[in-house]
Specification:
mainly alpha; 99 residues
């Protein structure tokens, strides 16, 4: 059963890494939105395509959407941190059960 425990720990660490990379992608997207970036640039295009499916639904649900300040990246980063602290830690603690 230790194999299953090791598998769960490895999966939790990969999820943690992917979530950390996604936080940086969101941060880069926010910084790019402050400047007049070329929308045809492949990096800018990637940042928008990677983040817009997550940011757009949150942006639509915010009551102060027309205020000029986009707080949806902050909300998504908080959700990602919650997933890292709750989901990943829970998976690692659950893997102890299999040892």
């Amino acid at each position: 059963m230790f194999v299953m425990g090791n598998f769960i720990v490895a999966l939790a660490k990969i999820i943690d890494l992917v979530l950390s990379v996604y936080v940086w992608i969101i941060i880069f997207r926010a910084v790019i939105s402050w400047v007049n970036a070329d929308p045809y640039n492949p990096i800018v295009n990637f940042l928008y395509r990677a983040t817009e499916p997550v940011l757009a639904p949150i942006r639509r649900r915010l009551p102060f959407g027309g205020s000029g300040i986009d707080v949806s990246p902050i909300i998504v980063i908080l959700i990602v941190y919650f997933l890292q602290f709750f989901l990943v830690k829970t998976m690692i603690q659950a893997a102890v059960y299999f040892h």
